[in-house]
Amino acid sequence: MSQVKVDHLDEKLGGSGLSPLDASRQPLLSIKDMTVEYRGRSGSAKAVDRASLDIYPQEVVGLAGESGSGKSTLAYAACRLLRPPAVITGGSTLYSGGDFSRSPRDIFKMSDDELTSLRWKEISIVFQSAMNSLNPVMKIGVQLRDAIDVHLSLSKSEADAKVEEVLDMVGIPRDRARSYPHQLSGGMRQRVIIAMALVANPKLIIMDEPTTALDVVLQREILSQIVELKQRLGFAVLFITHDLSLMMELTDRLAIMYAGRIVEIGDTKALRSRPLHPYTRGLLASFPSIRGARRELSGIKGAPPSPLETIDGCPFAPRCQFARESCGQVSMQLESLDRIDLDHLSACPFEVGQVAGIDQGVGGGGIDE
């Protein structure tokens, strides 16, 4: 992979000229007030609490937060992929499919046949941990054929050609279709999962920690591949990870999740330069600067609250250096405090940068432009 590809991921993504929040555009997928609980003998653990997120055609949206913040649960719930003891107790997911001449469809009201048609043809998922996602006793080509046979009406020769096509897309030699997963490197296995997600040309791909456990070189290669495919095929991406530095390179918009709630959302560059929520500032401050003077990193003290707890107000208050008594009455509704970008929303109603005498342009100091 060339150095140009590595150094200009963000430029390539921004080349479409799309404005995700243009009033004339409608969401491809709209998650509204999603609430998910895991129920057990010890009580109900609220993994997602009234979370809302819109994804527009051909954009890349990042969903970031600590492990256990509810990122994957939110995405899987939106596609009705959760199993007991998970229970969706509120909210809806509306899917337009890019056809804005008709009303969006509610995924929660779809029949099993409608869901089968939706998955992979419209929305596909790249699951984390590729080795565990692939069947170890089946060859790669057979597993790709299975996905094709279920979701596409193709002859054997057409299906074989499709397998070769998607392998070419992700940079895997065609003869590797006869390999078993254990005969491939970690990077190649992850590319196979991406190829499987592409077989039906979906409009939205959910990527759940797609580069977990890979070294930074392989991460860069796979991210570059995703960028190129997104530009060529025109799909939208929901990119889930706890690695904020990857998000800054790959996404158009970024949503920050904490304790089951989305606490900040907006244009990625705005979040980097003008973070509004103290949790976002803490995440940015925990990454080292690539250029400039050395500085001491400042992590976020404490731990996230237990999902079994019932919390009044802001769940981040016990760890927040700017917390005050009124944080216990915060509604956690996303509001605009950014005078430059009205679509930059935060659940913290206080202008932390001004109150604390912090330069909002620093962005926590973690990620360089």
Summarize the structure.
The chain is α/β, with parallel strands linked by helices and 369 residues long. It has 13 helices and 12 strands. Strands 6-7-8-3-9-10-12-11 form an 8-stranded mixed beta sheet, sandwiched between helices.
Explain the overall architecture.
There is one protein chain. The chain has 369 residues and is α/β, with parallel strands linked by helices. The protein has a domain of 177 residues: Rossmann fold. Helix content is 30%, strand content 20%. The protein contains 13 helices and 12 strands. The strands form 2 sheets. An 8-stranded mixed beta sheet has the order 6-7-8-3-9-10-12-11, with helices on both faces. A hairpin with a 2-residue loop joins strand 1 and strand 2. The radius of gyration is 21 Å and the shape is globular. The two termini are 23 Å apart. The N terminus and C terminus are likely disordered.
